[in-house]
Amino acid sequence: MHQLLNFHNEALLRQALTHRSYVNEHPGEKDNERLEFLGDALLNFVSGDYLYTRYPDMAEDEMTRRRSALVDEKQLAKFAVDVGLDLRMRLGRGAIQDGGFHSPNLLSSAFESVVGAYYLDRGGKIETIRPIIQDLFDSVPQAVLEIRSNVDAKNRFQEWVQANFDSVLPKYITERIGGQDHAPEYLARVLVGNRIYGTAKGRGKKQAEKQSAENALSKLRQHGLI
């Protein structure tokens, strides 16, 4: 059994594995949504600390991309399977019929919940969960991490927009705001409809637009939307 499943309070582990679809069919049970919120915050912190410490010379934008690759839905779902959460999840009948045990969304959510629950089970001490998560991060092949982190932020943001809006694409508004002729500085805003999702400056239009997309993705992660 993986160390992440070694709980003092088994009831807390059961809650972490309990999806709201199960609660709908079993009144009185508690779902894992609050634990998922806590686990998401912990993973963002631990991944940032991990990259900052492990790669002392890495630029901020590269660390941002790698953190996105370490804690995105696909990677967290893989961690969930590696740990053994896939068949332990408590799902409602409908979720099971829809393939819930193999759903990246449900798997990643369960993983975040178990991380949050383990943290609480160990007295709310970050040092108890940090080495376990870092070992999982270490298990991701560097080649895979580099390939996934290099996927352009504009493409990733466009994919999110297309998955969540009908017939809408991101629009970039970019203007020069200063700098020298040989090194102009630009400000880019990325909008969906009339709403601004990200803003950033850069030494060139492409850099500014790319960073605005990164900022948009970061905000989506903060709000639990990706």
TrEMBL record:
CDD domains: DSRM_RNAse_III_family, RIBOc
SUPFAM superfamilies per record: dsRNA-binding domain-like (SSF54768), RNase III domain-like (SSF69065)
Residue ranges constituting the RNase III domain according to the UniProt record: 1-123
GO MF entries: double-stranded RNA binding; metal ion binding; ribonuclease III activity; rRNA binding
Complex and partners: Homodimer.
Protein name as it appears in the record: Ribonuclease 3
Annotated DRBM domain residues: 152-222
Organism: Chrysosporum bergii ANA360D
Residues that hold Mg(2+) according to the record: 36, 109, 112
